[in-house]
Amino acid sequence: MTRVLVVDDEPQLLRALRINLVARHYEVATAPDGGAALRQAAEFHPDLVLLDLGLPDLDGLDVIHGLRGWTTVPIIVLTGRYAHQDKIEALDAGADDYVTKPFDMEELLARIRAVTRRAGLHEEELAKIQIGDHTVDLTAKTISGDVRLTPTEWGILEILLRNPGKLVGQRHLLAEVWGSGHVKETHYLRQYMAQLRKKLERDPAHPAHLITEPGMGYRFKP
């Protein structure tokens, strides 16, 4: 079942969207502001986010930037802002589509289907990824050459591989893999990244794929 996070400060619109999406067999979570949206995204792991730009606490663009710091989840912006520049800024920030209010529900549902279809194709591309001499299958949780990873190593590797080319911050990795109480334990990451490189890189001392960005985080370079 496709999981959708709906973010809007209008209770009536939230209710209408929930009813329409649930009726079409989507699993729905809602958030009335930007802070709640970022928390819900981390806990609910949506397959799609419907996001209003005019939120009471954070601007919707800040929410997009916050999400794009760690996830490639498709984002459709829903907003009453009509200015062309607003649309450009939202798309540049990382939104996948833009729908102005008031909108036709059937058109929105068609856009949701289109965006989730594209995301599904992206998932297929990500299912098997080459690192050095090894093929990583994220779906089956296997690595060619009989390489075995611990659950923690898998957790780190999967986050990096699902964000190819993007910097993933140390705090985000620590919070996702160990929990929010460990965001300062950067030595954990150094140890596990060293282990991953030994298992996957051709030359662990000079990694070509699992890259350290000093003081910031790590990046998977395809």
UniProtKB/TrEMBL annotation:
Keywords: Cytoplasm, DNA-binding, Phosphoprotein, Transcription, Transcription regulation, Two-component regulatory system. InterPro entries: CheY-like_superfamily (IPR011006), OmpR/PhoB-type_DNA-bd (IPR001867), Sig_transdc_resp-reg_C-effctor (IPR016032), Sig_transdc_resp-reg_receiver (IPR001789), WalR-like (IPR039420), WH-like_DNA-bd_sf (IPR036388). CDD domains: trans_reg_C. The keyword Ligase does not apply. It is found in: Cytoplasm. One of its GO terms (biological process) is positive regulation of DNA-templated transcription. The modification 4-aspartylphosphate is found at D52. Residues 113-222 form the OmpR/PhoB-type domain. Residues 3-116 form the Response regulatory domain. Residues 113-222 bind DNA. One of its GO terms (cellular component) is protein-DNA complex. PROSITE patterns: OMPR_PHOB, RESPONSE_REGULATORY. Its main location: cytoplasm. One of its GO terms (molecular function) is identical protein binding. This is Response regulator.
